[in-house]
Design goal:
Layout: H1 8-16, E1 34-42, E2 49-58, E3 61-66, E4 77-80, E5 85-88, E6 90-95, H2 100-108, E7 111-116, H3 123-133, E8 140-142, E9 147-148, H4 154-159, H5 174-186, E10 192-195, H6 214-225, E11 231-235, H7 238-247, E12 251-254, H8 260-269, E13 272-274, H9 277-283, H10 293-316, H11 336-345, H12 350-356, H13 359-365, E14 382-385, E15 399-404, E16 407-411
Helix pairs in contact: 1-3, 5-6, 6-7, 7-8, 8-10, 9-10, 11-12
């Protein structure tokens, strides 16, 4: 994994929240040499399956891949997969994890990397560092801290009381955007998340309403770039979404009402789309992440539109990445497999969908130097399924084994 300076401030907040006690979890298994035999490997990049293969994992990395067999090192744990399929651990490129229990729920669903898209008190920065410690079973975390939006969350002012002049005021203008970028950079975030339009998950807001113009978005992108921090823009409406694309954001999140013209611009500029279709479906149903009558009505209107938009994006050649937009909370029923099914539904091939959750996602997040594919030298983030996900992406719903940074965190092979 990449290393980054750790914010003692964020770590202190984790301790204050009582989360540090998880470090003593006796269920954590230390990394050891692992050999997987009789495997069918789906590498996350091509549609070729490497059959009858073996994988040697050492020090959390894939050391060797061979079809000629591998002599297990002394003390290695050997697992005979009996022809089961090995694919890269999945990447959920848009989550809102509020605690370590939620991170564990994401992991045991087969998600070995997440991009956090907004939490209070820069908790995701602390979670990132805990993940890097190797002492917890949790996904790799890329942190974004708070949203950059018209009205910042109240908690931001508790963390930064020097920004109190903004309380009750719209955060607008190029200088304000630069200031917010500096605040995020001061906490060593990996991404800056901004709201280019209003939210869909609040009944009192209209998700088509634009918040920022092109010059404001460009100011944010340029300020982030000074610290090598890319920008992701939440955008449902076309006007706000187009301003974000013109301003140079790396990804558009959601994109429900984007026009064909904006999608063509995204394809031209190489802007990624993270459509999060499944969470809109979740909006229409009782329970789950949302359970509000007005939002159910909104969801019934949005769902066909976001599916149509994503289909148009795929046809236009926009690079699409999979994500849930869930917090993996105790009541959540949303998992990444549902988004993969939605992406198949808009016309993507099974290979393209697997890429959207692995190698393409790693490319977006700029972590393809160490994860997102099965290749020698990369992190041993692996998902073992009974059936071939290239034939049916529903195979990811039932992981028989999950290996995260070389640790076996789920093992149901013998059941």
């Amino acid at each position: 994994m990449k290393t980054k300076h750790f914010s003692l401030y964020s770590f202190g907040l984790l301790i204050a929240a009582g989360l540090f006690s998880f470090l003593g979890n006796p269920s954590i298994v230390q990394a050891q040499s692992i050999v997987l035999t009789n495997a069918n490997i789906v590498n996350g990049v091509t549609d070729e399956v490497l059959s009858n293969a073996s994988i040697l994992i050492e020090n959390g990395k894939i050391k060797t891949i061979s079809t000629a067999g591998i002599a297990p090192p002394a003390g290695a744990q050997v697992y005979d997969l009996n022809g089961k399929y090995v694919m890269p651990g999945m990447i959920d490129a848009h989550v809102h994890l509020g605690d370590l229990a939620a991170a564990k729920r994401a992991l045991i669903s087969g998600v070995t990397t997440v991009r956090s898209m907004g939490v209070a008190h820069f908790m995701d920065v602390g979670m990132r560092e805990l993940a890097k410690s190797g002492k917890l079973d949790m996904p790799e975390v890329l942190a974004a801290g708070y949203h950059v939006r018209l009205r910042p969350a109240d908690e931001l002012f508790m963390d930064h009381p020097e920004l109190s002049d903004w309380i009750g005021q719209d955060v607008k203008g190029e200088e304000a955007m630069k200031k917010m970028a500096d605040v995020m950079a001061s906490h060593q975030v990996d991404w800056i998340k901004t709201n280019a339009t209003a939210r869909a998950g609040l009944p009192q807001t209209d998700p088509r309403e634009p918040y920022y113009n092109t010059s404001e978005m460009k100011a944010l992108v340029d300020a982030g770039a000074q610290n090598s921090i890319p920008v992701a823009a939440h955008a449902h409406g076309d006007e706000g979404g187009r301003a974000a694309v013109e301003g140079g954001v790396r990804s558009i999140e959601h994109g429900t009402y984007l026009s064909k013209e904006t999608l063509e611009l995204m394809a031209e500029k190489g802007t990624y789309l993270v459509p999060t279709i499944a969470v809109v479906n979740d909006l229409t149903m009782p329970g789950g992440d949302y359970d509000q009558p007005l939002l159910m009505i909104r969801g019934r209107h949005m769902l066909p539109r976001v599916r149509e938009m994503a289909r148009n994006a795929h046809r236009a050649g926009v690079k699409i990445v999979a994500a849930t937009d869930t917090g993996y909370g105790a009541e959540s029923t949303l998992r990444l497999g549902q988004e993969l099914e939605e992406l198949v539904g808009i016309g993507m091939s099974n290979l393209e969908v697997i890429q959207a959750a692995t190698s393409r996602a790693a490319e977006l997040l700029q972590i393809d130097d160490h994860t997102g594919r099965i290749a020698e030298g990369l992190d041993a983030d692996l998902l073992i399924t009974e059936r071939n996900p290239l034939d049916n992406v529903k195979a990811v719903y039932d992981p028989l084994m999950i290996i995260n940074n070389g640790k076996v965190v789920v093992n149901r092979l013998s059941w």
